[in-house]
């Protein structure tokens, strides 16, 4: 660690905001050396006003004290062949419960909400029952669920793998794989970022190297596959490709960001053929397109902008029928080391909310009948990094903050941008007999059955009541203790699916998909 101190003191650690160091910190406990598997994430900014934070911000992720070597935070070993571990059978669905599929990473409505009802009103001691778990490879993709099938997209032993599981039992139904060569330049996962999309009887995946694949949901049979990086001459991206596709009007719409200004491309759902191209100098982002209706017309919202010089990007409003560009609104940080990542949020009333974490923060737009965007308000402190804010009962909820340190949960008035409240969601807990202070950090929010399910960056699951007056934790449990918990959970038919993307510091278990029973009575 001492070798890094001169670099930390004058900020010469390079790669600016995207450079992260992972190291173990040795502490003394009862006069004995104890190895603590903290993950210390140093992030460097040349533009932040605070002189101390301009050198580094150190975030210690809470973990358990033990004497073994800390597990690696880099590329994970391939899971064993017998990957599934079954713990219990699911409870029956409550009579009259409303259930829903989860066909995309932000749910059935692309807004991190679910209409499901009759979930557990009070969690049992120790948290919801774990039904099954299956080890997984690298990647940050969330599962997609339809017709009793769960589709998992990850990287196993150098292969991008699409596999279907029984959503209730976790048993394997089929898998499809292909080789991929990708190594993250900044030390993050080498697996896919974009989540699978289920459209009718088909599954779509967009891999980290831009392989776009269409499979039959029932069997896993390949319908078509295209190498977008090669075909569209896509330039290098900070963290590989990460924008989820969206299906509209029998077309698969992707923020490609290829050469010759081939920004957004639509492919035929059934045949994979190019149907239209929307041209723009703006490139591919890590945001995902969403559909909405503006002045009675269905449109596709694409929040563009990734690695480019000069840094460019913003919102494109596109006619999904022919690719016509109806509106263009620039919204991108001026720093090269930045990218747009949060999906546009359609709020009704011809309004769209955008947010990014590097400089500009949030902006509320309203569109006139000619699709001219008009700024309603801006707030640079509503700077969400990647999780989709949630609209509920006339308030907009989310987590602002580029870094773990100082990330705040907010509740704002979407009409004015004024805050009802902002707070660092903290709580005390006991781990191995030790009292620790934990936080949500840049966690995920999922609104379902009258409450928010919140998943912290290190694996704490909370059921939280939130309204314009404040927040209150109703239930909480530590599912695992692993950094990089950046994937929104999925819920379908009363079962909650959680992705653990790195090794559990408390048990040593590698990355897993875990299924929990939230069915009430």
- Gyration radius from CA atoms, angstroms: 22 Å
| Quaternary status | single chain
- Structural category is mainly beta
CATH architecture of the domain at 109-135 and 387-521: Beta Barrel
CATH class categorisation of the domain at 109-135 and 387-521: Mainly Beta
Q: Major sheet: order of its strands? A: 3-5-38-37-36
Given as residue ranges, the uncertain stretches (5+ residues, pLDDT < 50) are 1-80
Beta-strand share of residues: 35-45%
By CATH, the topology of the domain at 109-135 and 387-521 is: Thrombin, subunit H
Give the distance, in angstroms, between the N- and C-terminal Cα atoms: 53 Å
The description of the largest β-sheet is: 5 strands, antiparallel
Write a concise keyword list for the protein shown above:
521 residues; Thrombin, subunit H; disordered N terminus; Lipocalin; mainly beta; 2% helix; 38 strands; globular; 5-stranded mixed beta sheet
Written description of the protein model:
Helix content is 2%, strand content 40%. The chain starts with a helix and ends with a strand. The protein is mainly beta. Strand 6 and strand 7 form a beta hairpin. The chain contains two helices and 38 strands. Among the domains are: 1-70, no CATH class; 109-135 and 387-521, Thrombin, subunit H (Beta Barrel), CATH 2.40.10.480; 269-383, Beta Barrel (Lipocalin). The strands form ten sheets. A five-stranded antiparallel β-sheet has the order 3-5-38-37-36, with no helix packed on it. The longest helix has 6 residues, at 5-10.
């Amino acid at each position: 660690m001492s070798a890094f101190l001169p670099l930390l003191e004058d900020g010469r650690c390079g790669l600016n905001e995207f450079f992260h160091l992972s190291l173990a910190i040795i502490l003394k406990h009862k006069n004995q050396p104890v190895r603590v598997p903290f993950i210390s994430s140093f992030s460097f900014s040349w533009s932040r006003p605070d002189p101390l934070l301009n050198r580094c911000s150190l975030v210690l992720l809470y973990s358990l004290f033990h004497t073994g070597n800390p597990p690696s935070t880099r590329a994970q070993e391939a899971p064993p062949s017998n990957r599934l571990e079954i713990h219990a059978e699911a409870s029956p669905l409550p009579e009259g419960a409303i259930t829903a599929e989860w066909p995309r990473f932000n749910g059935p409505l692309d807004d991190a909400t679910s209409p499901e009802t009759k979930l557990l009103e009070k969690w049992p001691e120790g948290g919801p029952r774990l039904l099954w778990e299956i080890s997984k490879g690298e990647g940050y993709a969330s599962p997609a669920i339809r017709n009793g099938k769960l589709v998992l997209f990850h990287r196993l032993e150098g292969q991008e793998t699409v596999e279907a599981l029984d959503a209730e039992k976790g048993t394997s139904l089929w898998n499809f794989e292909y080789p991929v060569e990708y190594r993250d330049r900044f030390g993050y996962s080498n697996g896919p970022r974009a989540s699978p999309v289920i459209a009718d009887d088909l599954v779509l995946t967009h891999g980290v190297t831009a392989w776009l694949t269409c499979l039959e949901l029932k069997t896993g049979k390949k319908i078509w596959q295209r190498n977008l990086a090669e075909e569209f001459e896509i330039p290098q991206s900070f963290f590989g490709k990460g924008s989820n596709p969206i299906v509209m009007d029998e077309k698969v719409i992707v923020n490609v960001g290829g050469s010759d200004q081939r920004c957004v491309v639509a492919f035929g759902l059934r045949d994979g053929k190019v149907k239209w191209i929307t041209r723009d100098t703006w490139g591919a982002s890590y945001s995902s397109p969403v559909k909405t209706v503006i002045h009675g017309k269905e449109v596709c919202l694409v929040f563009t902008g990734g690695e480019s010089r000069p840094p460019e990007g913003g919102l494109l409003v596109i006619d999904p029928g022919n690719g016509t560009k109806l509106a263009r609104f620039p919204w991108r940080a001026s720093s090269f080391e930045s990218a747009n990542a949060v999906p546009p949020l359609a709020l009704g009333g011809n309004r769209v909310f955008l947010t990014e974490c590097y400089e500009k923060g949030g902006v509320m737009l309203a569109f006139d009948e000619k699709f001219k965007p008009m700024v309603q308000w801006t707030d640079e402190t509503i700077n969400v990094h990647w999780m989709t804010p949630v609209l509920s009962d006339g308030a907009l909820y989310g987590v602002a903050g580029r870094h773990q340190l100082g990330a705040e949960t907010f509740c704002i008035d979407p009409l004015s941008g004024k805050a009802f409240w902002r707070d660092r969601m903290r709580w005390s807990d006991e781990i191995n007999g030790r009292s620790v202070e934990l936080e949500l950090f840049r966690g995920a929010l999922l609104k379902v059955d009258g409450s928010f399910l919140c998943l912290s960056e290190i694996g704490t699951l909370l059921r939280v009541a939130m309204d314009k007056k404040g927040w209150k934790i109703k239930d909480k449990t530590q599912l695992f203790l692993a950094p990089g918990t950046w994937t929104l959970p999925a819920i379908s038919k009363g079962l909650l699916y959680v992705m653990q993307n790195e090794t559990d510091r408390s048990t040593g278990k590698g990355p897993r998909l875990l299924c929990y029973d939230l069915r009430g009575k």
